[in-house]
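Hi, here's the filled form for the chain we discussed.

Project: internal
Contact: R.S.
Residues: 160
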Amino acid sequence: MAYESARDLDRIDRLILDALQKNARLTMAELAEQVSLSPSPCWRRVQLLERGGFIVGYHARLDRRRLGLGVHGFVNLRMENHAPRTAASFERQVVALPEVIACQNLSGQYDYQLEVVAADHEAFARLVREKIRSLPGVKDIYTSFTLKEVKTAAALPVET
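And the returned structure, exactly as it came back:
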């Protein structure tokens, strides 16, 4: 049995995914108990979910402020052109910037949105001026800062 798409997932599979998103440190026995299975069949399902690409990793969620990253902001970019070679070069270089914690290629007014963290506003400004502005194809940059984090969900909605 292999999982090809979300249609192949049953209620138990979805419960497993939901539980692991909330706490990836659950032991197999704890996970099995939560989803009303014995540990062996639960373990087999987790293995299938991993092989099927539904589970792509297990991560610790860190507190950016405790790590000295007090500024959280967004950099919206417009590109000079949409040539595939320029986009590929831009994307390859932006992935290498550790301060950029997410990057999306957008439809609409902007071509890309970068989610960025920095120690302070000066470090953020230096990053934008010295690194982001010099990325291939960047035409215009618009920045904004987070005033208040209302929701920072790391979990995807899994209907059970």
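Let me know if anything looks off before we file it.
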